[in-house]
Amino acid sequence: MLTFDFLDARHGDCFLVRWDAEQDGQAPQDGRSPDGERVMLVDGGPAGVYRASLQGRLHRLTGPDGARARRGGQDRDGDPPAHDPPREGTPPHLDVVCLSHVDDDHAGGLVRLFRDMRQAQQDGEALPYEVDALWLNSVEELVDQRSPGLSASVHPLLERAAASEAAVTASYNQGRDIRDAAVALSLDGNAPFRGPLAEGAETTLHDLDVTVVAPDEGALAELAEKWHEARRRGDPEVISAAYADDSVPNLSSIVLLLRHADGTALLTGDARGDHVLAGLRALDLLDDAAPFHVDLLKLPHHGSERNVEPDFFERIRADHYVISADGVRHHHPGEDTLRWLVESRAPEDEYVVHLTNHIPFAEEALAELRADRAFEVDVRGPADQALVITMGDRP
Length: 395
Fold this sequence. Notes:
The protein is an alpha/beta fold. The chain has helices at residues 47-59, 104-122, 139-146, 150-164, 166-184, 217-233, 236-244, 247-251, 273-282, 310-315, 335-343, 360-369; strands at residues 2-7, 15-20, 37-42, 93-94, 96-98, 130-131, 134-135, 202-205, 208-214, 255-260, 263-267, 292-298, 316-323, 352-355, 376-379, 386-390.
């Protein structure tokens, strides 16, 4: 089983990846269910998402008896059965928390989650969650990977930018808060990668093969160049502008390719489409013979037309296309993005476009595009805590 729970992250991203793993004949430990279900949390949405939906969804991972939701123990929508929050001693267990990049619509909820963990730690209480690993990239580490020592020379300018520019302040503070919590909770270091997650890094996490597609070499070069320019000019405005136009968080965004016996997924964060394609080419996963196929593709940057071009969808095909957005704060997804997606597929192709929220302009655009085509549209219902997609389901 490979299942994705896309929560209502408003204009951001927040979702769980759940998969089966062999127990190697060992007895279940730490609240894990006998069937060996594992869990990854990717991003936390804006700050309010943690209390509104993420916290409750995490509590559904562990039953009152300490066992997690089991295969066959799902309701008709594929959700784990509802129950009371776990009692003391049986906190929800997360094998890994991955922050794709430090931007409020992805990091805000994780700041709250780790704040709860730190508060419990400081109060001498049991932690509300068991987390085995935390994956995140700091911009400074990525810059230094390309140009060792560069981040330290630009740090005073970054501090000045953070003191005066709201976009820099929010990202800087959230990144610092999560990194500080990681150190206090012994979660720093990006285990088992032991360094920044960049193109080509690989690991196997309990039968789930994880390959880092981006940030690719091109993204790292662009990121370092912005820091070089700031140092040459001695101007914090260079950094402020790079944060304001989203280029810093987008260039640093982690893109993961997940491969499991039951399915594959490409999780793109807010990365630019050209960097995703470049990463796939560098890994020999993309060629001219045929499009690269995954079971599930989470569209980059909530379906913004600024992050993709038509060839992105020509080169990558999926059975399930997921758009995490609400269309309120930003006009996401773009109508051009939807048109490029649909026009990249043959009229008889069967696939599903999933929306995590009701977005009238997007649904109207998709309704027009569906004429004489076989694809379907799936929208999370307002009463549903998550949009659940299980690999193996026919599109």
